[in-house]
Amino acid sequence: MLKIKNLHASVEDKKILKGINLEVNPGEIHAIMGPNGSGKSTLASVIAGREDFQITRGKIEFDGEDLDDMAPEERAHKGIFLSFQYPVEIPGVTVTNFIRTAINETRKARGLEEMPANQMLKMIREKAELLDIDRKFLSRSLNEGFSGGEKKRNEIFQMAMLEPKLAILDETDSGLDIDALRIVANGVNKLRTPENAVIVITHYQRLLEYIVPDFVHVLHNGKIAKSGTKELALELEEKGYDWIKQEAVL
């Protein structure tokens, strides 16, 4: 589904990614870990198409198509979803209106008519129930006055409604207490299918107790320094990142 080959990327002439190679297939969950400044969020932003990041070498393919010249909204319409580490507040736009607009814009880009209102309402109810979301929550302004847990749960609700092929969760566990973490992780697990894939970016192994990855990749200095299974995350929890840095130097 996703092929990244020798990816180099910079922001404001500062090199951040220095040769990333990664393949993600349908049905897989990949965890990206690493110390601060290793390039985790940059990788997520580059895949999603943030324009302040410049690809200087290499390529990203999604379902066999080169993403280089695609705008962020085109990538979203193709099925790439990015859950933000710090979701923005949009006063005056309700959660329901936001998601209705997002879905219909994607349908329009795919040559489909707008989703009928009764079908949309049924889908909203089903997904809200799946994620234990209170109906009152859906009539609130997007993220305005939301707690950290509510913001992250709203991101997962958007993911549930948009049904992306590839979901990238950028430090979704950031600032969550254990109950909110379980709710968010449970939502991700319920939405997993053999046709979609998830990239989880995290500092900590605790999230991976609830969202169990097929593969774990450790970034260091803009490169994947080590890959393994979920046991690698446990090893990082125990030893920290210093041994990875030392291995990368050798």
Q: Portion of residues in helices?
A: 25-40%
Number of helices: 9
The percent range for strand residues is: 25-35%
| Main beta sheet strand tally, sense and closure | 6 strands, mixed
Radius of gyration: 18 Å
* CATH class categorisation of one domain: Alpha Beta
Poorly predicted parts: none
Report the strand count.
12
Give the mean pLDDT. 89
- Strand order across the biggest sheet? 6-9-10-3-11-12
- The geometry reads as globular
- Provide the CATH superfamily of one domain: P-loop containing nucleotide triphosphate hydrolases
What CATH calls the topology of one domain is: Rossmann fold
Protein name: Fe-S cluster assembly ATPase SufC
InterPro entries: AAA+_ATPase (IPR003593), ABC_transporter-like_ATP-bd (IPR003439), FeS-cluster_ATPase_SufC (IPR010230), P-loop_NTPase (IPR027417)
Pfam family, one: ABC_tran
Keywords: ATP-binding, Nucleotide-binding
Characterization of this structure:
The chain is an alpha/beta fold and 250 residues long. The protein has a domain at 2-88 and 164-249: 3-Layer(aba) Sandwich (Rossmann fold). The protein is 38% helix and 28% strand. The chain contains nine helices and twelve strands. It has helices at 40-48, 72-78, 95-109, 117-130, 135-138, 148-162, 178-191, 230-239, 242-249; strands spanning 2-11, 14-24, 29-33, 54-62, 65-66, 80-83, 90-94, 141-142, 166-170, 197-201, 215-220, 223-228. Strand 1 (2-11) and strand 2 form a beta hairpin. The mean pLDDT is 89. Belongs to the ABC transporter superfamily. Ycf16 family. It comes from Robiginitalea marina. InterPro entries: AAA+_ATPase, ABC_transporter-like_ATP-bd, FeS-cluster_ATPase_SufC, P-loop_NTPase. Keywords: ATP-binding, Nucleotide-binding.
